[in-house]
Input
Amino acid sequence: MADISRFIMALVPPSRENAISIIISTNQLSQKHCVVLTEKDALQIIDARNNALKDTGRIELDLRVINKIIRTFCQSPYINQANYADMICELVEAFYYMKNETREQIDDDDLIYIMRDYFDNRCFGSIDLLTGRELEKLVDEICFGRYNGILDDREEV
Output
């Protein structure tokens, strides 16, 4: 019976207050990189996620992707306190767009890893270059069968 209860609870999206708390908990890692999120920032990110899910026709019941994006990108040398929340919002939107455009042919963790690599090393912190050039190239590579995957030499966050 306990297993069924846990399964059912896993299907229930977190309340807004719980979602805020989950996002704010990422500050434990991000403050080491001189960036933190406020409750207002968390609400902004939740709204961006919900809009991106609606726009792409996707359903997601947890905040794993948001947490992974925050934990991965808070370490970027191109993220600072002034642009942190806005960048996370744009990255969340780009993530869900890419999941749709690539027809789920790329794993969530791999996509986030690639986004961070491109953001830092090809786009030098430009979200416009990331979304307008590099991720579009990736879509083409995946959709036309030229994507070979990534090497699994990345660091876990």
Residues 39-56 form the longest helix (18 residues). The CA atoms of residues 21 and 73 lie 19 Å apart. DSSP finds eight helices and no strands in the chain.
